[in-house]
Design a protein that fits this description.
Largest interface: A-B, 37 and 38 residues
CATH class of chain A: Mainly Alpha
Number of strands of chain A: 5
Shape of chain A: globular
Oligomer: homodimer
Chain lengths: 166, 166
DNA sequence: ATAATTAATGTGATAATATTGTCATTACCT
DNA sequence: AGGTAATGACAATATTATCACATTAATTAT
């Protein structure tokens, strides 16, 4: 198996169906391997999150889950999100209070998120250089790292082009 | 004036009164220079935020403001926080929905926040290496950066020592 | 197989965080 | 005096998140 490349949702060759299928197949495999249950609700929510590369909010998911899960309540969603986060199948975007599918769940790569303020799509980058620099900085501060949230807001390549052409 | 050093709230020589005074004097000067008003409420809220190096929540501030500002409402706090954020006098800690004083308001340094999960104190680091790596990564992705939130959760030096001695 | 255990979900209530809006009043600036 | 900025005094509402307890489903042990 090859290492994951940085994912560019907007690249012209991006086939979203393939993208989603791969993510779900990987999720299914990982859950099987780990002996945890990717139950129907969890599977459905993961699918809803993968519906686009935009970060999606909890209550937005709730609304979209309800048509086929009439009993869904906030707790339903938050529990499901907790599970998906624990399994590394999604990222929480702290600066948006929102969630986005993770491409790299099979790997331990820590990710950097590039968040476009126009199209709202979130791009993951493995960003080894950033992580190395960050580890170095933490070490200097004698700080033991447990988790990182590295979120960059700005304008993605696609939206730059759109703006340039207007 | 010298460049700001990375601030280590837990270092043994840390004198918090001095720390707060410096921050407030800097804030007063900056507001004067910029022609904006550090009104009594804004000054008070900034003082409350600087009360510790922990990130503090909006409604916590509201409770602490009320004894001497009976009329304070959520809008009061959020307006004030907006002002302090705009002026770069505080940071918003995205991953905690909370706020912390900024040491570097006089400089344009972008900061990295080290957040201890035990004592909850937040340490700022200017982290040039991280920022350089991040700019490089963004450039590679053809992404224009507007703002960054770099938040690292873990165990600070002081809490490591406490844990080791138990 | 069945009982016991653990995991997941249903359900209702509530807490915590944040935004918006209006209009009157007060403070500050020129 | 007139204009702008800030606050008071409401209020209302939106958004995000948690908790407790009952019930159901899945897994494990006997």
């Amino acid at each position: 198996m090859t290492q994951p490349s940085n994912h560019i949702p907007n690249s012209s060759e991006h086939n979203h169906n393939k993208c989603v299928n791969e993510a779900l197949i990987t999720a299914e495999r990982l859950c099987r391997e780990r002996g945890v249950q990717l139950t129907p609700i969890r599977h459905k929510v993961l699918t809803l999150i993968w519906d686009s590369h935009k970060a999606v909010k909890a209550y937005e998911l709730l609304d979209r889950l309800r048509p086929e899960q009439k009993t869904a309540k906030p707790a339903t969603i938050y529990r499901t999100l907790d599970f998906l986060l624990e399994q590394g199948l999604i990222h929480r975007v702290e600066s948006l209070n929102a969630f986005v599918g993770c491409h790299c769940s099979a790997y331990q790569h820590e990710q950097l998120l590039l968040i476009c303020k126009y199209c709202e799509e979130v791009q993951e980058r493995s960003a080894k250089g950033v992580m190395t620099a960050l580890s170095h900085e933490a070490k200097q501060a004698d700080f033991i790292v447990h988790s990182k949230a590295i979120e960059v807001h700005g304008t993605c390549a696609k939206c730059q082009k759109i703006q340039a052409s207007q």
